[in-house]
Amino acid sequence: MLAPPAWAADDAAALDLQPAAEPTPSKTDSRSLRLFGEVAAGRLSQRYGLATEDTRRASIDLNWQFKPSPQWRAVISDRLDDIHPVDAGSRSTLNSLREAFVGWQAENGRQAVDLGRLNLRYGPAYGFNPTDYFRDGATRAVTSADPLAQRENRLGTAMLRLQTLWDGGSASVVLAPKLRDGPSDRPFSLDLGATNHSDRALLAVSSRAGDSVSVQGFVFHERGKGLQLGANATALLSDSTVGFLEWSGGKDTNLLSETLDPVARVERRNRAALGLTYTTPSRLAVTAELEYNGFALDKSQWQQAVASYGIDPLGAYLVQVQRRQDIASRRAVLVYLSQRDAFIKNLEVTGLVRYNAEDHSRFAWAEARYHWPRVDVALQWQANLGRSNSEYGAVPGKRLVQVLAAFYY
Questions:
Q1: String of b and e for 343-374 (b: at least 16 CB within 10 Å)?
Q2: Half-sphere exposure of 234 (CA within 13 A, CB side)
């Protein structure tokens, strides 16, 4: 999972919005292989008179990097999931080729080129990232409710990325062409139609405004929709507090129209996320995040949609929102907590609450994970809470409790 900004090794690293350049590998460190497996089992209680179900999952996760020379590298990142039960019409086994690309870096470290499938993630927010422009369609298999893990495990996008760096800043140009018309449900498909379903281009510029503030600006264009402008910023407000802001505005499709109308309506709206992360001396990190999505439904629009379509068809709307890694309500709140060495050494406790500020429904998730050198064991709990005609109250699954074990090789 991605580490929260407050967990960075020092204050300067906590402000980085771009991954730092990787160190030149030694002759004995030109290959890097990470491999682990996961198994999980649980019990899911449901609404609407549906029976309680047993759940199970097995996963294999691989990340391999090879550097034949200091200037060249190749990356392959892949995950295979077998999940039971699944929704009608879905596949239980799905392979996700997250990344497969080659990269070149100039000897001075100032210019770089990457070609292939990259999982390009922008934005410092935790639960909702308006400037994460390549998130649409990237989620192939959902295996965790943790939004940080979802960003890490999703599909990358086939693209050409050109980068240049200077002291205190960088600029990137990304070209991602259309390769297929739509997603595939075949278990071992590359699923290029999910991530490369339209022609897209992005210009991103990053800069450090002193020692305590980092900012990024974006110009994004998608064929058939139009132009979006975006910006995000991270600021070190004190030794223990980091603030962040994301905003994106421009043309995109209305989410309900995209789900239920024959032709989706393109509108000009805004998305935004604003938050703070506070870290205590005991290493408890608490993040509070306000989220806004102008393309989602507000309270009156949700009620009107329920009256017009019924609550069942709106399930497709919620699935579409998840596919796009958006939020389903106009306004939402996220609280995210993480405690390392909780009560005893090597025990990590993580939890979150998502609150729909329009209909007041909630989603809660918590995990207690104990780390051994090569094995993790975790207990997870999650619940959807709210009235039957609300976002989380309408979800058939009510509560899930499961145990998980991860084996690292």
A1: eeeeebbbbbbbbbbbbebbbbbbbbbebeee
A2: 25
CB atoms within 10 A of CB 99: 21
Spatial distance between the Cα atoms of 398 and 384, rounded to a whole number of angstroms? 5
Work out whether strand 397-408 and strand 72-84 pair parallel, antiparallel, or are unpaired.
Answer: unpaired
Cβ neighbours of residue 55 closer than 8 Å, sequence gap 6 or more? 40, 41, 42, 43, 44, 84, 85, 400, 402
Domains of the chain: 32-408 (2.40.160.100)
Q: Spell out the alpha helix ranges (H) of 128-202.
A: 147-153, 192-195
pTM of the model: 0.90
What are the structure tokens assigned to 43, written together?
Answer: 């019990």
What is the spatial distance between Cα 217 and Cα 219, in angstroms, rounded to a whole number? 7
For residue 236 the two structure tokens come to 């070190």
Q: What is the pLDDT of residues 84-94, one digit of tens each?
A: 998 777 889 99
Q: What is the pLDDT, as a whole number, of residue 9?
A: 32
Q: What is the mean pLDDT of residues 217-235?
A: 97
Tokens of 5: 């900004």
Burial of 228 (0-12, 13-18, 19+ CB in 10 A): buried
Q: How far apart are CA 409 and CA 355, in angstroms?
A: 38
pLDDT band at 171 (very low <50, low <70, confident <90, very high): very high
DSSP lists the bridge partners of residue 12 as none
**What pLDDT, on a 0 to 100 scale, did the predictor assign at position 62?**
97
CA distances in angstroms from 14 to 101, 236, 373, listed in the order given: 27, 8, 26
